[in-house]
Write a structure and sequence with these properties.
Blueprint lengths: L8 E3 L5 E4 L4 E3 L4 E4 L2 E2 L2 H10 L3 E7 L4 E2 L1 H16 L5 H12 L5 E8 L15 E7 L9 E7 L13 H12 L4 E5 L5 E4 L3 E6 L2 E5 L7 H12 L4 E4 L11 E6 L2 E9 L2 E2 L4 H12 L3 E2 L2
Parallel strand pairs: 10-11, 10-17, 14-15
Antiparallel strand pairs: 1-2, 2-3, 4-5, 4-9, 6-8, 7-19, 8-9, 11-12, 13-14, 13-16, 16-17, 17-18
Helix pairs in contact: 5-6
Length: 293
């Protein structure tokens, strides 16, 4: 009989999870899950898992507030209208967030929108949205520079943060097996779009350049852009060829927990790293106010 090894766990200060004694990261269980403001039942969770049609947004709560909360709410409403043919009341979502946060000043929240009345045999019909809020420990920024492996891939409905994540994790697995840390997606023409769970940015002199290939416009990306523009720095969206990446001052990725993490290399090609330029991006993000739901 084969037995699963038992490992002692200690809290990992760098991210939401635990560290085994052998150094492996183990994600922590979600503290609580609420559906429309009530404890989620098994039937509702099974419905979401089996149909797998919906969208979400992830946010870090600090001191009870969220940077770019208005952007999160706008994303949720727009995607709900597109996927379910119905609006999502931002005030109702704010109330659900307040309930989920409770007395916790710092935590991670994932807000998933799906519909228990969605009929996969009649997907064209409008259906009422359900809101699932999952709360877990706050997640710290990823700081170690990433080695990326390029792959030609475009997510379905790339502008949406939808729950169809099989392709993302599959490509990350392939990248890890090849000796990289993560994956960088490009178009068939070799234009950079995004990474697995990250937006990708480049510093070109005094400007920050976001690739304009089809990709999700992340909330952290948008918050950084607000901060940069408020500080008088130029922000540009244009095509970035994979072959041109090494010519920038520095390159970075960002997501809900990480304002800027340096890209160390792409396909083994070492990229320049400028800590001052990365600091400008992090400062631009931190300059934006925390908004309470």
């Amino acid at each position: 009989m084969s037995l699963t090894p038992v490992f002692k766990l200690t809290r990992d200060p760098g991210c939401s999870g635990m560290l085994r004694a052998d150094g492996e990261h183990v994600p922590m269980a979600i503290d609580r899950i609420e559906l429309n403001g009530e404890a989620a039942d098994a039937a509702a969770l099974a419905r979401l898992a089996q149909v797998n049609y919906g969208h979400f947004t992830s946010m870090q709560v600090r001191d009870g507030g969220v940077r770019g909360l208005d952007l999160h709410l706008a994303r949720l409403d727009a995607a709900t209208r597109e996927l379910f043919g119905a609006p999502l009341d931002p005030d109702a979502v704010r109330a659900l967030l307040r309930h989920a946060i409770g007395g916790d000043a710092d935590l991670s929240l994932r807000v998933t929108v799906f519909s228990r009345t969605f009929d996969r045999t009649r997907p064209e019909r409008a259906s009422a949205p359900d809101v699932l809020v999952a709360a877990s420990d706050p997640r710290g920024p990823h700081e170690s520079p990433l080695r990326l492996r390029a792959a030609v891939h475009e997510r379905a409905a790339a502008h949406l943060k939808h729950v169809g994540t099989f392709d993302l994790f599959h490509h990350v697995r392939e990248a890890r097996l090849a000796g990289a840390d993560d994956v960088l997606f490009t178009t068939r023409d070799g234009a950079v779009s995004e990474a697995s769970i990250w937006n990708v940015g480049f510093r070109d002199g005094a400007r920050v350049v976001w690739p304009n290939a089809p990709a999700l416009h992340g909330i952290t990306q948008q918050v950084i852009t607000r901060g940069l523009l408020a500080r008088g720095l130029e922000v540009l969206s244009r095509e970035v060829a994979l072959d041109d990446a090494k010519g920038f001052r520095t390159a970075f990725v960002c997501n809900s927990s990480t304002p800027a993490c340096a890209i160390a290399a792409i396909d083994g090609i070492v990229l320049p790293r400028d800590e001052v330029a990365l600091g400008d991006v992090r400062d631009a993000y931190a300059s934006q106010p925390l908004e309470r739901p």
